[in-house]
């Protein structure tokens, strides 16, 4: 970051939290009509019907969030036509659905956004849109059915263009209101809940381990470590909450509520204040692996992060600062003391304990992964900074073929 830019904190999403919060949020905005509800088609039909009735939805559209139905720019453009003239749009689903709907709302307000995202194909991989809100922009109510993405409160969304993921940053991508309701995550498998906790942890870790810069206050680092510790504790508790124990339903609802709120705090709170948004490299490296292998986000992340951390621990500050990697891992181990003390080995042990599968074999060789990563995020762009194709080829070779022995 440049030294003359002050830290900025600005958040607009109104949160409703706890059991029943989704129905309350829907009812508050129901009078007056003009509500469109967009929901993941995998959700139970009875749930969608109840939500539509509570919100007075005049139109309900189901979306397939898997396979060919994944979030992409073409689908967002089509949805934006549906949303024009609506007073309110309700998005119900996981991160893919929430991103797709948020982008559609952005396209309603900013006619040039689609062309801006399409420009250059997969390069650059990041698009920043100027502030835009027309008088007819619909309000957005986000009802997440998963935990960890924080898509409901984030001004960042992922879209797919020609088979490549692109990040879009715009203030309109964050919902005006979001309800963190454990009723909507009650069928979330334990493994996906663990991955959600990990995703929230890595939103902190990815930025924290990098050099903080002059405008990161001590309070931001303190909150980052506080949140990281709470998330690690919560992740550890997931293994001890069995469905057949007394009051398990209540405890699980409380855990899901806490996990969703902690995840949202990684975006809404102070922990990111003043940090360079492009500093952390884990997401950009993992993104290419996930795209090539069709691996889930956290499977790819846990396959790549130990290798980046090991390079940071060996002194390469482009991947992170060794002392901050150790501080962050010490915070995790203060809540999960059975994990190895060595940070890179500890990450791999955590992946095993939380039962993340290994990343699938890549049909694309390391050299091509490196070329794709540089095209999208490097070669003068701030995301990969000074990292060159040859260095990334070595990194991807280790990720695909090697084992950390330290």
CATH topology of the largest domain: Dehydroquinate synthase-like, alpha domain
Give the total of beta strands.
9
CATH class of the largest domain: Mainly Alpha
Q: Order of strands across the biggest sheet? A: 1-9-6-4-2-3
The domain tally reads 2
Low-confidence stretches: none
Q: What does this protein structure show overall?
A:
The mean pLDDT is 91. Helix content is 47%, strand content 12%. α2 links the parallel β2 and β3. The longest helix is centred in the middle third of the chain and has 21 residues. The relative contact order is 0.11. α1 packs parallel to α2 and α7 packs antiparallel against α8. With 406 residues, it is an alpha/beta fold. The chain is built from 14 helices and nine strands.
SSE map:
Elements: E1 14-17, H1 21-28, E2 35-40, H2 45-55, E3 57-63, H3 73-83, E4 88-93, H4 95-109, H5 113-118, E5 126-128, E6 139-144, E7 156-161, E8 164-169, E9 177-180, H6 190-208, H7 218-238, H8 248-268, H9 282-293, H10 297-313, H11 322-335, H12 343-353, H13 366-377, H14 389-401
Parallel strand pairs: 1-9, 2-3, 2-4, 4-6, 5-8, 6-9
Antiparallel strand pairs: 7-8
Quick tags:
406 residues, Rossmann fold, 2 domains, alpha/beta, Dehydroquinate synthase-like, alpha domain, 6-stranded parallel β-sheet, globular
Briefly summarize what is shown.
With about 400 residues, the chain is an alpha/beta fold. About 45% of the residues lie in helices and about 10% in strands.
């Amino acid at each position: 970051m440049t030294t003359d830019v002050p830290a900025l904190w600005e958040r607009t999403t109104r949160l409703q939290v706890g059991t029943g919060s989704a129905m309350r949020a829907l009812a508050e905005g129901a009078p007056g009509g003009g509500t469109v509800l967009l929901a993941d088609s995998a959700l139970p039909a009875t749930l969608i019907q109840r939500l539509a009735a509570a919100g007075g939805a005049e139109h309900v559209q189901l979306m397939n969030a898997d396979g060919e139905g994944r979030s992409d720019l073409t689908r967002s453009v089509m949805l934006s036509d549906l949303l024009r003239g609506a007073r309110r749009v309700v998005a119900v689903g996981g991160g893919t659905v929430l991103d797709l709907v948020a982008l559609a709302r952005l396209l309603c307000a900013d006619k040039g956004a689609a062309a801006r995202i399409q420009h250059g194909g997969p390069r650059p991989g990041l698009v920043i849109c100027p502030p835009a809100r027309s008088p007819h922009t619909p309000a957005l109510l986000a009802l997440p059915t998963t935990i960890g993405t924080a898509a409901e409160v984030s001004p960042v969304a992922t879209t797919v263009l020609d088979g490549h993921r692109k990040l879009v940053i715009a203030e309109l991508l964050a919902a005006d209101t979001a309800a963190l309701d454990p009723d909507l995550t009650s069928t979330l498998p334990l493994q996906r809940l663990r991955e959600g906790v990990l995703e929230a942890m890595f939103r902190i870790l990815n930025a924290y381990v990098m050099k903080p810069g002059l405008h990161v206050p001590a309070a931001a680092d303190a909150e980052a470590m506080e949140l990281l510790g709470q998330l690690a504790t919560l992740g550890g508790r997931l293994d001890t909450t069995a469905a057949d124990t007394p009051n398990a339903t209540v405890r699980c609802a409380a855990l899901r509520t806490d996990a969703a709120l902690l995840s949202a705090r990684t975006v809404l709170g102070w922990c990111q204040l003043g940090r360079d948004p492009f500093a952390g490299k884990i997401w950009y490296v993992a993104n290419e692996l996930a795209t090539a292998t069709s691996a889930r986000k956290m499977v790819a992340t846990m396959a790549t992060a130990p290798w980046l951390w090991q390079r940071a621990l060996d002194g390469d500050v482009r991947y992170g600062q060794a002392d901050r990697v150790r501080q962050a891992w010490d915070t995790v181990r203060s809540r999960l003391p059975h994990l190895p003390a060595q940070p890179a080995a500890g990450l791999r042990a955590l992946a095993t304990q939380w039962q993340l599968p290994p990343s699938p074999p890549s049909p694309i060789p390391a050299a091509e992964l490196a070329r794709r990563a540089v095209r999208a995020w490097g070669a003068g762009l701030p995301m990969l900074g000074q990292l060159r194709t040859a260095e990334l080829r070595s990194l991807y070779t280790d990720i695909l073929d090697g084992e950390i022995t330290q």
